Amino acid sequence: MFQNSNLSKAAFAKANSIPRTTFNNILAAKLCSSNAQICDQERKRQRLSPYENVDKALLSWIKYARSQNAPISWNILKEKSLEFANELGESSFVGWLQRFNSRHNLSFKKLCGEAADFDSSSLKEWKDVVLRDILERYESANVFNVDECGLFYRILPDRTLCFKGEKCVGGKKSKERLTVLLAANMDGSEKIIPLVIGKFLKPRCMKNCKSLPLFYDANSKAWMTADIWEKTLRRWDLNFSKQKRKVVLIADNCTAHCTVDGLKSIELVFLPPNSTCVLQPLDQGIIQNFKATYRKLLLQDMISAIDRKEQLQVSVLNAIFYIDQSWNMVSQKTIANCFRHAEFHSYPESEELLEDDYEDLPLTELAKKLRNRDSAIPDENLYTKIDEDLATNSEASIQDIVSSVLNSNAEGSDDEDDSECEKKSVSTSDALKAIDDLRCFLLIPKQQMNI
């Protein structure tokens, strides 16, 4: 159209109400696309990177740097590419960075409005300006908070003292932990299906499992990564788009929480640094409630196993069902109250705090039952909070990024150190008999149940 107009660039842009710089960018992009077609008519797409692992590693590092609002120059990118190439044993790059830039459409400019723009002195300003704006633009049902928590998923009371204060950043005990991503909205009416991150992509316990009640991913440290974060947000964005909803998702600015371009239904907003204990609704009691419920379910099954003269074995698959049940048991009132405690409320605040229907979990009663069975909880309070300081992500070191890239290329290990947790196959007749026994059990009056 422009080529046939006989107008200058400036005149054409003005006549069509297009900003001059925007019009120049459009022409440049079109020229680039045209040149690619002319020079490479035999090929249907631009050439893929001959250094695929270096490409993935460098892109992962860029996402991390962007999440920290760190400036990225051409020289910095070149230096990082050489570091990754050296770590991965690749040859030197001749013209590689230029193609990398073209493939991923990178531009070297500072990002605005990201979490690293804040400091601890900005808490009041964030609440008075950013939060107020969010609550004016979105209904409470469309305001979501998301956060990870670490979980020692199979720690029983007799092992509590061994794990006291453990941050679990690697090594043997990392096999005992999972990372769980939770998200809920401001009025407590919607809890997003959790994501569980384990250490093994295909643990033995899931060998014959056709479906899970939640989402599962894995990496060598069972941590949240920028790639898993982006994949999860894009899945959520697709679901909200199908519902024709616009939502805001509030997250802390940990290293794994990168910005995600191209989201259509989610506005991603970061909390100020070092403010989660005050401003993060999930940290006001929601995660604590979820974990306490998980421990209760674990202890109940432990007591049942003792009564059957068996030893309780908890696999990742068991933990996934515990997690699903525990998250479903967190009440709407508990969630709504925790948002209010984090000062997520209407302006002016017109509603009183709801009476919380959270029932103190009967760990004391369960502890008594364990003592009657020659087992004990050394410290009931410690047991419920044993994993509150677990790491859920790491600084993006060269070695960690390379490890993540190499692991993503693997099929996933089946060599999990919990073969005793592999479920035995159950015949159809055994399953039907179990259902019949359960039906008879449920007919027994509650007063006569010896639970």
TrEMBL record:
The keyword RNA-binding does not apply. InterPro entries: CenT-Element_Derived (IPR050863), DDE_SF_endonuclease_dom (IPR004875), Homeodomain-like_sf (IPR009057), HTH_CenpB_DNA-bd_dom (IPR006600), RNaseH_sf (IPR036397). Residues 408-428 are annotated as: Disordered. SUPFAM superfamilies: Homeodomain-like. This is Tigger transposable element-derived protein 4. PANTHER family: PROTEIN PDC2 (PTHR19303:SF73), TRANSPOSON (PTHR19303). GO terms for molecular function: DNA binding. It is found in: Nucleus. Keywords: DNA-binding. It comes from Araneus ventricosus. Residues 42-110 form the HTH CENPB-type domain. GO terms for cellular component: nucleus. Gene3D superfamilies: Homeodomain-like, Ribonuclease H-like superfamily/Ribonuclease H.
